[in-house]
């Protein structure tokens, strides 16, 4: 996902192993990224590019009219089965494969509008009706499209527009009686129903649902920091030789206070498991739904009615505006490279897009100074006009040469000390070149080299200084020009940066049947992004902030009282409530190259047994926690009980199988059977698992769902509260997971209250 596909990784690692030792040493000891790229790039041979091309050929990202018909027919089957959500997604796939102004695309848009109508998405339905008409929807089918439009307008409280649509429709019937008698009668009946609705709504005020959807997007910082755009005035920027740049509270900060609200400098949608074309099979089109089908590829907004790129079937957007912005800024270059970028992975894609976006920040200066790096292996700040602020910054990122000293106090700041949320800030994120393995650096260098060569081969001289947003300059003879090589070095830098600096944009997805009274949710990774300000926060296994996302916008709030002078801390993933100190430190060391010495780590290191019992076994006699390795002994002061760990693990596995069987009954609607099984599991779990064990929480959550489905809200709430205690231990009191569990509990309380009110009446 982040890195290239396994086949390309294995191929390059084998190529590395076959290189002469002298070349391996030269690449391994390269002092700058320029040297690394210079020595690695010529090693990419034509046969390597052919192998990569074959791999990329497995991703179908071009337009295919046959695919459009296939998806429209599959969508029709879903529609007839009243699975309108599934139908809308399949119609969208059909839209993506259709050419503009074709009958195929107009039919897919029209059919999707019907699915959206049944889903109650009337505004979006109207937009699809307009799109179908714009792309030449057949005249003979127009009446039913206009009827749908009128019904949408009535439902939205826009009777005047609905009335005009009805008038147009009646005129159309009179002018062009092309329908059969039976069709005409059906449409007349629907038309009469619509006219009645129009009369009922005639005197009602219009509503504006889009205005009602503005919630957290409108929440802004109370007072923005003058030196750190996107950050609160309650924080200040500091730098330390050991921990780099970081943020500190300038006053006492209360829980819930908004500290950072920042739009990503660059983001790339996580495509999910994009299926490869299964060669040899009759059908090469897949109906699997991925993130790329449900979210805008620019702003990440969820949508059931995406607008496709005119040039490829992969990129989709929530609106024409988003599509045009993406095209102008980067997709005009990326469009023909879709299959290659899916093969090379998200990090390579983010690296390319970062450099493409850099073109819009004083292109001449950025390119000129990057080109200057080719000769002196340093780089100047693109925006700096003052020679005193020139930053000779080693492209290796670590400033390991004495004559490459940083003269500015804080990298990423301008001449006035203001931190910049632009390419300059992104460029100065550390790539930690010396910490990556030689094999990994070689893989990244050859992947970037292959991408650069494809840019030239496709005639996309993407990095020329006179490039306009909507025009591409034709390439000269297919040799890697010096300027493109410079940007190749920049892309290599970004690719190495991402392991430590990439921010996963996450969202909560609903799982299970939408008809269920209580549905499960899970947190999923939606995109990979770079945030200049968010990247300033250091890690703690017990952070004092929480992060959430709305599209590409990250918001960071204080999760506890932060005193003046305290550092603002963020969790990079390993949290004290989710894993022990040894596992946390190992994960942080392998990905971020540092040994965590935050207070929880130091505390647990000194007292290893003091951690929570979230995954622990307990004594069946006195209920105290069991401790030990192969043989566990009771920690109770007067209990001598001991038991084999293998025996307890075997019991746990049996219990998990029983819970799984109960959950299957629950999904299939066999509620009483599920409850009996779960109550048995609950009793068994209490005899040997700690109260905070994840399986205990799983059992309580399943019982809550079962009782809610039966309408027993009181019992549902009781079990959900027990599940809530386990979630808090595993994810923390200020976690997103905790917030969603609390929302589920609020739903149960609400449903229980409303039912009681109905009975009392």
TrEMBL record:
Annotated MYND-type domain residues: 296-335
GO CC field: cytoplasm; nucleus
Principal localisation: cytoplasm
A GO term, aspect molecular function: zinc ion binding
Places the protein is found: Cytoplasm; Nucleus
Biological process, per Gene Ontology: heart development; methylation
Limits of the SET domain: 233-573
Ranges annotated as spanning the membrane: none
Gene3D superfamilies attached to this UniProt entry: 6.10.140.2220, SET domain, Tetratricopeptide repeat domain
Protein name stated in the entry: Protein-lysine N-methyltransferase SMYD4
Record key words, sorted: Cytoplasm, Metal-binding, Methyltransferase, Nucleus, S-adenosyl-L-methionine, Transferase, Zinc, Zinc-finger
Matching InterPro entries: SET-MYND_domain_protein, SET_dom, SET_dom_sf, SMYD4_SET, TPR-like_helical_dom_sf, Znf_MYND
Source organism of this protein record: Bos indicus x Bos taurus
Reaction(s) the record says it catalyses: L-lysyl-[protein] + S-adenosyl-L-methionine = N(6)-methyl-L-lysyl-[protein] + S-adenosyl-L-homocysteine + H(+)
Protein's job: Protein-lysine N-methyltransferase. Monomethylates PRMT5, modulating its transcriptional activity. May also act as a histone methyltransferase. Plays a critical role in cardiac development. Acts as a key epigenetic regulator of gene expression during cardiac development via its dual activities as a methyltransferase and negative regulator of HDAC1.
